[in-house]
Request: fold
Amino acid sequence: MAYGVKIAKGDAYKRAAKARRHIRIRKNVSGTAERPRLVVTRSNRNIVAQVIDDLQGHTLASASTLDVSIRGGEGDKSAQAKQVGALVAERAKAAGIEAVVFDRGGNRYAGRIAALADAAREAGLKF
Reply:
């Protein structure tokens, strides 16, 4: 009989790895009024970006693929993520926010997450 840590396989391993990354990131990432946190939440179908002031617990700006201006738009999911990044940056700048702290939420920095971040940077957010 073997003792020790059981290694999960397949999807369970991926979920556990994402949870570990999320805990590790949130230990160091926090948003303030001057430099709020840009949180990215990804599902299989949609992507959501929110600018959050953690000290007050308020969402200052948000954008999603469920927004009317993006929903049902042309292009693949990466193209829609770029639109979400540009839209959240535009709304954040309208709220007077120039710089943010990027919180990828346990997701790997690749694909749709990277596309959203690059579009937000191109639209003028600093992080």
Q: What stands out?
A: The mean pLDDT is 89. The helical segments are 11-26, 77-94, 112-122. The chain is about 35% helix and 20% strand.
